Each structure stands twice: as C-alpha cells, then as structure tokens.
Amino acid sequence: xxxxxxxxxxxxxPEGENLVLNCSFTDSAIYNLQWFRQDPGKGLTSLLLIQSSxxxxxxxxxxxxxxxxxxxxxxxxxASQPGDSATYLCAVxxxxxxxxxxxxxRLSVIA
Amino acid sequence: DxxxxxxPRHEVTEMGQEVTLRCKPISGHDYLFxxxxxxMRGLELLIYFNNNVPIDDSGMPEDRFxxxxxxxxxxxxxxxxxxPRDSAVYFCASSARLLEAFFGxxxxxxxx
Lengths: 111, 112
Fold this sequence. Notes:
The structure holds 2 protein chains of 2 kinds.
Chain A: E1 4-7, E2 10-14, E3 19-25, E4 32-38, E5 44-51, E6 56-59, E7 62-67, E8 72-77, E9 86-93, E10 100-101, E11 105-110
Parallel strand pairs in A: 2-11
Antiparallel strand pairs in A: 1-3, 3-8, 4-5, 4-9, 6-7, 7-8, 9-10, 9-11
Chain B: E1 5-7, E2 10-13, E3 19-24, E4 31-38, E5 42-50, E6 53-56, E7 65-71, E8 74-79, E9 88-95, E10 101-103, E11 107-111
Parallel strand pairs in B: 2-11
Antiparallel strand pairs in B: 1-3, 3-8, 4-5, 4-9, 5-6, 7-8, 9-10, 9-11
C-alpha cells in the first residue's frame, strides 16, 4: 500500500528565503506526482504535475523535482513571500489508481 | 470552465439526520473522486468513479455512506444517519484519464 510522507510538518521562514519541502513515497512505481497548495478553509489548488518520465517541472518561483528510484520529490520555493503561506500537499498515483496524499507541510512566511 | 463545483459549502446538521453533498465535475473529465479531510487522518479517498461507474468504494467508512453518479455532470455523497464523527471537510475532484486532478472548494460538514 502506497504511503506518502511529508517533512517537515510545519515550517516558518523569514520573507525572501529560499526553501525546500520534502515528500517521500514507499512504492516507486508511480505514474504522476502532484503538488498542491491549500489555504486555510479552502480547496486544493494544483501547483505542479510531474509525470514519471520527467525529473522536474517549473512554474514561476516554484520548482518540483522527482527521483522515482529513491521515492522522493522536493518542492523548491525561491524568494519566499508572505503570500506563499499555506499548506503544501504532495500526492502520487500509480497510473490506474487515484491520488494518495501526504499530510502536508504547513508553511509560514514571516514579513 | 468554472472548475469543480461543490454544494453546500457548509452544512451543520443534527446527529441522525441525512446529509447529501453535491458535486459537479469539470466538463469532459471522466474520473470523479470523493475525499474526506480531517486533522488526524489528512486526505482520505472515499470512492471514485470512471465514466459514471463506481470503481473502488473501499474507502467508504460504513454502510451509512453512499455515493452515486447518475450522469457525467453530477455526483452525490450521502450520509444516513449522520454521526458527530463524520464531521470533516469533504472534497470532490475530477480528472481526465487520471492525469492532473482538480479539486472543488469542499463542503465543511459539522454534525452536532
């Protein structure tokens, strides 16, 4: 059974710092890995989707990498801003199964 | 497209009452998912449909929970009778061919 772990559970950084959020998964036979953002009391917003044949995806200040063999992904946020404060969720699927989620990393960017 | 639309956004009900949550997926998506989110357990898959057919309902916690998808543009999740431990945020999501998943804003259910 696939399990997804996100470390750290919470992170607080000063504005302007670059930061890395970590995601690990137990079964490396994944098809897609997706990073989401969730603001308090809101739904999930898809940030980046990495297919198993890809090693990274970039969107603006966000860069997500994928190492299937080691069962790891990282989300890099450059020049963090207070508006980046949210919970970031990592999820994987195996191609014929729905997404399995980690419990998220709660990020606070302090002005 | 307006995205995945869920209703109601908030529901407060008394224990024992029937609760119905509604979802309209993104047009053209062939997969629909129902998830439940709690502080303790995070996001858990309850059930998912492919082309309106339930594929896996092993995540549905009890027989009190049921879900239907009568057509490609509508799904319901029903809890009857509701209990306080059902209090959570329920999300509906849809995707095309199990690619990128898009989530609705969720329904926050409180059972008192």
